[in-house]
Hints:
The structure is a homodimer of 515-residue chains.
Chain A: E1 2-7, E2 17-21, H1 22-27, E3 35-40, E4 43-52, E5 59-62, H2 64-70, E6 77-82, H3 87-96, H4 103-114, H5 120-133, H6 137-149, E7 162-166, H7 176-185, E8 190-194, H8 204-208, H9 218-228, E9 230-234, H10 242-254, H11 260-270, E10 275-282, H12 291-308, E11 311-318, E12 326-327, H13 329-340, H14 346-362, H15 368-377, H16 380-391, E13 408-413, E14 418-423, H17 425-434, E15 444-447, E16 454-455, E17 460-466, H18 469-481, E18 485-488
Parallel strand pairs in A: 1-5, 2-4, 7-10, 8-9, 10-11
Antiparallel strand pairs in A: 1-6, 2-5, 3-4, 3-6, 12-15, 13-17, 14-16, 14-18, 15-17
Amino acid sequence: xxxxxxxxxxxxxGKQIIVIDDEYASRMGIHSSDRVxxxxxxKKIIAITNVAKDFPKKTIGIYEEVQEKLKxxxxxxxxxxAAERPESLGHIREKINGRKLRxxxxxxxxxxxxxRHLSDVELASFVTSLHIRGTSIDEVEGLTKAMIxxxxxxxxxxxxxLDKHSVGGxxxxxxxxxxxxxxxxxxxxIPKTSSRAITSxxxxxxxxxxxxxxxxxxxxMREAVKKTNACLAWGGALDLAPADDLLxxxxxxxxxxxxxxxxxxxxxxxxxxxxxxxxxxxGRGSKIKTIGEAQALAQDFIELGKRLDIHxxxxxxxxxxxxxxxxxxxLEAREALLAVMNKGPIDxxxxxCSLAGLLFEMMGxxxxxxxxxxxxxxxxxxxxxREIIAVQGGNPKVQPEDIELGKExxxxxxxxxxxxxxxxxxYIAQIARAAGAPKSNGAxxxxxxxxxxxxxxxxVLYRIYSGNKQKLNVAVRLSEKLETFGxxxxxxxxxxxxxxxxxxVSYEKPFVLEx
Amino acid sequence: xxxxxxxxxxxxxGKQIIVIDDEYASRMGIHSSDRVxxxxxxKKIIAITNVAKDFPKKTIGIYEEVQEKLKxxxxxxxxxxAAERPESLGHIREKINGRKLRxxxxxxxxxxxxxRHLSDVELASFVTSLHIRGTSIDEVEGLTKAMIxxxxxxxxxxxxxLDKHSVGGxxxxxxxxxxxxxxxxxxxxIPKTSSRAITSxxxxxxxxxxxxxxxxxxxxMREAVKKTNACLAWGGALDLAPADDLLxxxxxxxxxxxxxxxxxxxxxxxxxxxxxxxxxxxGRGSKIKTIGEAQALAQDFIELGKRLDIHxxxxxxxxxxxxxxxxxxxLEAREALLAVMNKGPIDxxxxxCSLAGLLFEMMGxxxxxxxxxxxxxxxxxxxxxREIIAVQGGNPKVQPEDIELGKExxxxxxxxxxxxxxxxxxYIAQIARAAGAPKSNGAxxxxxxxxxxxxxxxxVLYRIYSGNKQKLNVAVRLSEKLETFGxxxxxxxxxxxxxxxxxxVSYEKPFVLEx
Lengths: 515, 515
């Protein structure tokens, strides 16, 4: 049936959506969320229908995404037809009903995700059923491969390619900024891509951006890797696994993360990684709570690595407090720079060197951690980081004191004396975000005490940094409300751990979707 | 933060959606699908955010639904803030993770459904988890009560109120058009509301509309019931259980129906039903395949009825072929009128009388089915139906031959001889829809043979009616392709029932969402 085009002049967040009136929709047997094909000249695309009451008859309302594909203008005539339900929808339904999917079925789903043939309702149902039904290792493999095949890949013309990844969940984890120059300084190639924060106070891309631009394209990445053996790039705009980026958009509001493994490994494979060390921070207040969980996840990583031809080693790391003292992009960049200059906090240096060491051992080098430490102590890691900063367009001479922090600072002091028995990672992250991180990059939290430290009443536990008085106040109020630090004489003396109120309160763990 | 209003001038299908640019969204910590509160003068509403790239900065794009609630005009300033995640979302997440929900948790979800505080992604995930995790009878009760409490109810000032419902799935099921006048003619009150077809060739409202208007408001329903003890109204615009209407919009594209019981019984309770007979058509080609399934469903109906103070009896009926011979609104209205005039097909009359009989027996009348038959034979049922037609604004003198059928007719003839061993309900429905039903109300299929009938090669099996030559041709081509009738000498002689092709073909059972 022919329809006259009405340009709506707005974007639909990347979705291919059109609007038609209910009368004609009904005549064509089209319901809301049904797919239609739209033909204009030689172009034919599939879009998802919104049926609207009171919309002009025989008129098709077109969002900008559709307009760009069809190159149609206001008032022109297009041919609209009900499209067949995509085959992938049948496979999604089978997954809902508990059947394991075969590789080509998964491929057809992921292809339709990337082509925007599936509606939000269908995507949400798919990720919900993946979460509830679980995914077999075969399905995980299929999902990963499909995500790679539907995205771009990059060949650096070097071998072997090393890489490092953290499953995330611990604030202040700037380890990557050390691992990459250590590994590259040893002569290995490590083209690292990272993400920005979604729900955390800083992602690695946010941290590195304090030192140099991270928004590299493929050519710039290749150039950086050619000159320095490494890069510290933001992976978000590279289209390495676009299906994952689209699925995250429905996972995030639902607070579920059934695609953790495919999401991570598809992006690693896309940049050609052959040797990968995966950091699994573990413990209370971390994404992974127990060593048992960490081991199960590590087994999945290793098995999936075999199927993808990536050698994987997993490091289970202590995740019960922030890494180092700094949380927030600029604070963390400064701390990382200090650490690479051999002036860093011991836990950060140990973590970076043990992970770099695992990579070295995979390459046949003995005592990897010792080698990594020597690379820091010798100044080679610092030199390499400055090379990377330079090639990405930053100031290679940057000093820690050059990095600007938020001008507004408040102190949180202890009301008790004893030792720091626990630090609530989540609350620290919330306070840093309230202060403005990651958007306002000078904002964040700088710890003054860590686990096991002695504390007197009135001692500063941490300082809150913000670029803006108002945000600082919000963060301070939050800090006063939350039990961020546990300070007592002896751990375990305070016996009442929690009290469940009779009145139900809405107490919900914030969802962390950082990989 | 203050934003300038840009009216988008289009509807979002009832959803409360706004659009803001990515930069300011990010500054406010708002992601796509997050909720915001919008304040304007004394009004404050919650809407769901679409984050758009290239949208004017500090501008809020407003769909008509939001505009109507806020009464805001172009260029005015509104205050936008990130809203807290509704508590109901935590409950949805608990359901995703397999916990049974308590009554007040369900209430908070259904309230947020009706208030439009939940996005499509969240609704889709909720119905998917209901489908996968299942619902306990307590949850079904909670869902039903919440749907009633969030909708309108109607009091007819009469008692007892009787009602009849079919879970659907069999084409040509015009039984309601007989049951209602039979019951009302016996002096009982039966204010029947019905739905239109969603995926079938005709719903009861579509059939009745051939005889008289069905789009009654509460006042008109009360008037009809006062005068005739009955009505045959379309329930869709009465807002009896608006949550159900909204949830169907996501169930339909997913082809899942986890809310069957709450959907049906909330609407019955809303009109005050106290005695209800539920028809469960059962058999191959029907929604419910086996007597065992039918019994389990019946038990749920009866138990839920007890909790809602509705006396329920269930009738399991033969569902392996269409009811009567006619499929399609006008064809069925004609057949129903003939049947109520005592000239109808025996299966239709038997079905209607046995269901009406169950209601009579619930009211303490013995031999209910016999009584129902006498009401037809005596002409009282016809008289009552004509009263109902008159009070709803139709022509009470309408004769079967007055009802206009599609002018274009084609015949489907048998290529084999023997007896009719099976009729494929689904294919019959598809052909009727291809011919134009239910929109074009004269379109449909009129069977000439039914199960057990003797057939010679060349005999007419059924006729296809359409208002339009082109649609007729589509229906005929479909009819030639589908094995609609099984004609063989002896059932079971043809041993090869199906052949699974080596090449996978997309073969998917169409989803029926008719209640």
